[in-house]
Amino acid sequence: MLRTKLLFTFFILIATLGFTARVTKSDDIVGTWLTSSTNSKIIIFKTGNYFYGKISWLRNELNEQGKIKVDDKNPDTALRSRHILGLLLLKGFEYDEKNNEWVNGEIYDPKSGKTYSCKMKLTNNNTLEVHGFIGISLIGKTEIWTRSE
Q1: pTM surpassing 0.90?
Q2: Cα separation, 84 vs 42, whole angstroms
Q3: Angstrom distance (rounded) from CA 119 to CA 90
Q4: CA atoms of 40 and 55, how far apart (whole Å)
Q5: pLDDT band at residue 139, thresholds of 50, 70 and 90?
Q6: Contacts of 63 (CB under 8 A, 6+ apart)
Q7: Exposure letters 67-100 (e unless 16+ CB within 10 A, then b)
Q8: Which domains does the chain have, with CATH numbers?
């Protein structure tokens, strides 16, 4: 009898866990995210079927000379006077429903002026893995961003 009760409890527990498993939806990534350095916040938004992200907040909006930070490392000299605040950082991500991740996008690093291939994945509702890479995704850098108010 005790064995039957334990088995019954076990199956109820497994069934409950199965029903409460989180299913990611494509729009779950939309919102404001604090970067791992905690020096900036990125607003991720959707336009059509694609996702983008722009810098919405900087801990320090001014550079060492007391001037507004600009995109001075950009390889395109015509873009070097753009303000960092409001800069489009994430471009063209598509949601891959099979793998529950956002893929085929690019991330721009204003500190280096370089653009990398990128994919993103929610590990939970408030944690986003952002993986930038060149070539294959096995080689690259992953940052953890946290959802912000």
Answers
A1: no
A2: 11
A3: 10
A4: 7
A5: confident
A6: 69, 70
A7: eebbbeebeeeeeeebebeebebbbebebeeeee
A8: 24-148 (2.40.128.520)
